[in-house]
């Protein structure tokens, strides 16, 4: 059934959530362009967009600060939402997420090393180095978790690897920079502050290529969700497919980390919310909606990061951890102890 | 092992750890931006030196820092040992079940929002205790439904810790605190610890160490299992609660001076158990002493790395490596090893 054609009923079921997500994205977008310092009037927004004569400062604020930041947030959120769906499906573990399995922290440490040590690496290569770091982090977790049953053990192992990587990150930041708090939080928790069209430009090709690639793998994810035996019974090379999906997933995450740091809990929560709302496990539906959902979550969190204590900005990663982490904790506590060993 | 053998082993371990502590203290005091010779350290310590600069460095900067390190290490090590014995869970330490981060949050809240609310800083450990106990209480109660298995408790503790840390970060960033203060509270640091901190932490350390030792015989009864302990006339639940409270207070007191230093309370008790066995009568003091050596050595290592290794941009850096980063780098791999041992049994 999960690999068959989508029925009309399911098609109708996703219409409303998708519509609501688009509407809330539009609303968040409006908040994102209008509010801040300075607050723009609607008429000013229009005139700035239409390049009519207007306040030069306000036009710069809109065109060079707020719009690129919003676009970047949308892309990052969408990629995180997609990566979470792939990862949870491929590992058949609803508690999996790149931030819990050492991938985000590994990618972040790689990028932070380049920035802090001022290594002569062109910006175009940052995502690839981040991918290297992320894959290394993820591989250590997978190897360390070999033979342990149940999701909880793997998460704990992932968290201790993350702790080691974050320890190295602190060493790097403390020893390589002069008292830079923002740098610490950009690479420890992630931030969308001070992003320009340049960042958007570096992200766009990956976004355009990687999301369709992720979509291609949804059929395989559906099979893996049935369990390894069933999937291989249906003729799938289970291990190879899973590895391919995890690499796609790591690439999605690495690209976002290279631009904004390891923003946590978005890729973990977006698929959960999506599956709950759609009441479907079919990755072909869940992945695109989860991408939308991730975009909305991150954009919403970023508005809080920008506006709540304005003009002071709190890195968006703090908010996603605060809210997303709490939801995740409740989710953990509601589960029975059945799959937990030790 | 026979009782006499254990006692002899315990004597040997303490006999080795004490000189080790003395040695690491001397090294720690000697090393820094101005390096002193052992002779200069000894002369300054015994007040025989004529060099006022050296006396200032040793007495006002390095000695209090070392003393705070010893006290904090001992308290964390003892807290970890108590928690592991009472909860019969090898994966537990104060930083992993939310005590440390809860304590830190309350301390930071108090320091930022009620700077005049406390008569003096000596009350901070109490505030920290309140934070730590309420955090653990909430986690424990919420967890009861799903069964408080060791891995599960550790996992919820880690997630809760990252949430509480982000609240602490939020508060500190909102008040535009610097990197040093953020590292101190969220990761733990001994940088800039002086006599003020020592003065209010030592009474706590001493009292709680004594209390824990008084209860160690009862704790050893707890290890026989609840039924046996009750049969021997022990008020099981009251003893357990009292011990847990002492562990929380030990953590809270150390956290209120050095922040959330992680993993010391995990490594210390495990190594101590390897050396002297699991009888709390010997485990508690051995773990406290070993952890004191461990934390002092970690701080010394952190400072050495900061001063010896030069990274680009190093010229104008101001903070030295927080000891919490060093203990994490030592402790997290150790935790991984323990996890594998626990999770991959068969």
Q: How would you sum up this structure, described in words?
A:
The complex is a heterodimer of chains A (342) and B (346). Chain A has a single domain (8-332), classed as ABC transporter involved in vitamin B12 uptake, BtuC, CATH 1.10.3470. Chain A has helices at 8-34, 42-49, 56-90, 103-116, 126-144, 151-176, 181-188, 197-216, 218-224, 228-233, 238-260, 266-278, 283-307, 316-334. Chain A has 342 residues and is mainly alpha-helical. The longest helix of chain A has 35 residues, at 56-90. Chain A starts with 7 loop residues before the first helix and ends in an 8-residue tail after the last helix. Chain B is mainly alpha-helical and 346 residues long. Chain B has a single domain, classed as ABC transporter involved in vitamin B12 uptake, BtuC. Chain B has 13 helices and no strands. In chain B, helix 1 packs parallel to helix 12, helix 3 (52-86) crosses helix 11 (264-276) and helix 4 (99-113) packs across helix 10. The radius of gyration of chain B is 20 Å and the shape is globular. The model of chain B has no long low-confidence stretch (mean pLDDT 88). Chains A and B meet through helix 6, helix 7 and helix 14 of A and helix 6, helix 7 and helix 13 of B.
């Amino acid at each position: 059934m999960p690999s068959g054609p989508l029925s009309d009923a399911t098609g109708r079921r996703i219409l409303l959530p998708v519509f609501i997500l688009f509407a809330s994205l539009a609303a968040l977008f409006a908040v994102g362009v209008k509010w801040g310092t300075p607050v723009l009037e609607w008429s000013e927004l229009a005139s700035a967009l239409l390049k009519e004569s207007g306040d030069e400062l306000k036009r710069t604020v809109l065109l060079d600060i707020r719009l690129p930041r919003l676009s970047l947030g949308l892309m990052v959120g969408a990629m995180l939402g997609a990566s979470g769906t792939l990862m949870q499906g491929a590992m058949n573990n609803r508690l999996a997420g790149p931030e819990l399995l050492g991938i985000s922290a590994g990618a972040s440490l790689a990028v932070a090393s380049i920035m802090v040590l001022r290594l002569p690496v062109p910006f175009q290569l940052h995502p690839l180095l981040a991918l290297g770091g992320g894959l290394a982090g993820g591989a250590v977790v997978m190897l360390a978790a070999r033979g342990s049953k149940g999701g909880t053990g793997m998460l704990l192992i992932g968290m201790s690897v993350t702790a080691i990587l974050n320890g190295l990150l602190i060493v790097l930041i403390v020893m390589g920079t002069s008292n830079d708090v923002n740098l610490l939080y950009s690479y420890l928790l992630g931030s969308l502050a001070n992003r320009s069209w340049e960042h958007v430009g570096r992200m766009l090709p990956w976004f355009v290529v990687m999301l369709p690639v992720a979509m291609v793998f949804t059929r395989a994810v559906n099979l893996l969700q049935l369990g390894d035996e069933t999937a291989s019974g249906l003729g799938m090379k289970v291990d190879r497919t899973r590895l391919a999906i995890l690499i796609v997933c790591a690439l999605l995450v690495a690209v976002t980390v290279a631009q904004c740091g390891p923003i946590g809990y978005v890729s973990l929560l977006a698929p959960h919310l999506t599956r709950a709302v759609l009441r479907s496990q079919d990755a072909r539906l869940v992945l695109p909606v989860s991408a939308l959902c991730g975009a909305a979550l991150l954009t919403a969190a970023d508005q809080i990061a920008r506006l709540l204590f304005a003009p002071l900005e709190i890195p968006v990663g703090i908010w996603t951890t605060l809210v997303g982490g709490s939801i995740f904790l409740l989710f953990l506590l509601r589960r029975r102890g059945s799959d937990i060993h030790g | 092992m026979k009782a006499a053998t254990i006692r002899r082993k315990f004597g040997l371990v303490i006999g080795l750890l004490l000189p080790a502590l003395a040695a690491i203290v001397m090294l720690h005091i000697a090393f820094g931006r101005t390096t002193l010779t052992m002779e200069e350290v000894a002369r300054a310590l015994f007040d025989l030196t004529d060099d006022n600069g050296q006396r200032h460095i040793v007495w006002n900067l390095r000695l209090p820092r070392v003393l705070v390190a010893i006290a904090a290490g001992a308290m964390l090590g003892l807290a970890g040992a108590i928690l592991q014995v009472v909860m019969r869970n090898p994966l537990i330490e104060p930083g992993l079940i939310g005590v440390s981060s809860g304590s830190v949050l309350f301390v930071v809240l108090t320091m930022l929002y009620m700077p005049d609310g406390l008569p003096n800083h000596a009350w901070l450990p109490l505030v920290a205790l309140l934070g730590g106990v309420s955090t653990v209480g909430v986690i424990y109660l919420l967890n009861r439904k799903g069964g408080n298995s060791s891995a599960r408790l550790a996992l919820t503790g880690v997630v809760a810790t990252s949430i509480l840390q982000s609240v602490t970060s939020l508060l500190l960033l909102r008040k535009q605190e610097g990197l040093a203060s953020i590292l101190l509270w969220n990761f733990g640091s001994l940088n800039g610890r002086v006599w003020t901190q020592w003065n209010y932490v030592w009474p706590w350390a001493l009292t709680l160490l004594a209390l824990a030792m008084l209860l160690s015989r009862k704790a050893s009864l707890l290890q026989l299992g609840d039924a046996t302990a009750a049969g021997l006339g022990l008020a099981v639940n009251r003893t357990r609660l009292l011990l847990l409270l002492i562990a929380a207070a030990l953590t809270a007191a150390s956290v209120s001076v050095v922040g959330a230093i992680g993993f010391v309370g995990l490594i210390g008790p495990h190594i101590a158990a390897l050396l002297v066995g699991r009888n709390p009568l010997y485990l508690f003091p051995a773990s406290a002493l070993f952890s004191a050596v461990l934390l002092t050595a970690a701080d010394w290592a952190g400072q050495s790395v900061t001063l010896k290794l030069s990274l680009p941009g190093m010229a104008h850096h101001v903070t030295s490596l927080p000891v919490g980063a060093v203990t994490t780098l030592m402790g997290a791999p150790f935790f991984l090893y323990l996890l594998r041992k626990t999770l991959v049994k068969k």
